[in-house]
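Lab notebook, bench 4. Still working through the backlog of constructs that have no structural model yet. Next entry is a single chain of 152 residues. Request: give me the structure tokens for it.
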Amino acid sequence: MKRRIMKRRKDGVRQHYIVGRKKRRNFGMGVSFNRKKTDYGSNLYQGTFADDGAKLDVVEGYPDWDASVIRLHVDESKRKQGRATKLLEKATEKYDSIHSQVSNMPSVRTHFNAGFRLDDDHDASKEETIKKFKEVEIYPGSIGMSFKGKRK
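Model written out:
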């Protein structure tokens, strides 16, 4: 059940909010999706894909991307079981375009396996992507990877 509330800002302007239950959707295979409004901006929403021991947080509403990955975490005891790849694949089923800033080697491989490619070279192979990451890893750095287009 949703309800409308009104709050006054410090400058006296009234702002209206719609408050209600979070949207939760189950994608099957244990993956659930939860969406809520963020504090970052007026048109941004945070979506969370969750599986047993794994969580993927994205922000929706950026002008260049349908979503941007802000956190991907898998519990240490649940790693190397394909959970992160499954969450990324579920996100690619929901969004047409997703961006992620990738900062470690296991994450580079996981994103590549889920269909993400380098921002500046979408035709790069897995080996070329890993090579590009190793070039920036020294600093320490990260590389931008993105998914464009719905999965079939």
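Notes after review: The first strand starts at residue 3 and ends at 8. Residues 16-29 have pLDDT under 50 and may be disordered. Flag for follow-up if needed.
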